[in-house]
Design goal:
Blueprint: E1 23-24, H1 25-32, H2 36-45, E2 52-53, E3 59-61, H3 63-78, H4 83-93, H5 97-100, H6 113-135
Antiparallel strand pairs: 1-3, 2-3
Protein name: MerR family transcriptional regulator
InterPro entries: DNA-bd_dom_put_sf, MerR-type_HTH_dom, MerR_fam
Domain HTH merR-type: 24-92
Length: 136
């Protein structure tokens, strides 16, 4: 059985939403191939993971939250970290957290560089926000 491909904070053509759109817990869980209760548990274990909550406790994940969840998933399920080890790894990265994400110039571009420029700018802003969130 092949492992599901992890989404980044970029556009997800499967859900048809804008890259900057908020995602529900169900959408994020489905994209990662994990259960919703796991995401709720991770919120308890990783203090830097704080989705927006609305009336009734409904969670909305920002693109930087999705990027952080993807990193947590990678550390726990691909790298074999424990929860404590993953938490320490994320805290230890702080300002260097953006270095773990692909550099904007490493993103495959289309032949039309003008259409790729907004995507590269968007990815850089995600990297910056993720690094700032990890420093909190």
């Amino acid at each position: 059985m092949s492992e599901p491909e992890l989404p980044d904070a970029g556009p997800d053509p499967a859900d048809g939403k804008d890259p900057g759109a908020f995602r529900t817990i169900g959408e994020v869980a489905k994209a990662l191939g994990i259960r919703q209760h796991v995401l709720r548990y991770w919120e308890e274990q990783f203090p830097m993971l704080r989705p927006l909550t609305r009336a009734g406790g409904r969670r909305y994940y920002r693109p930087e939250d999705v990027a952080l969840i993807t990193e947590i998933h990678r550390l726990l399920h691909k790298e074999g970290f424990t929860i404590k080890g993953a938490r320490q790894a994320l805290r230890g990265k702080k300002g260097a957290a953006a270095a773990a994400l692909p550099a904007p110039e490493a993103v495959p571009t289309t032949p039309d560089q003008e259409s790729a420029a907004p995507l590269l700018t968007y990815l850089q802003s995600i990297r910056d926000r993720l690094a700032a969130a990890l420093e909190e």
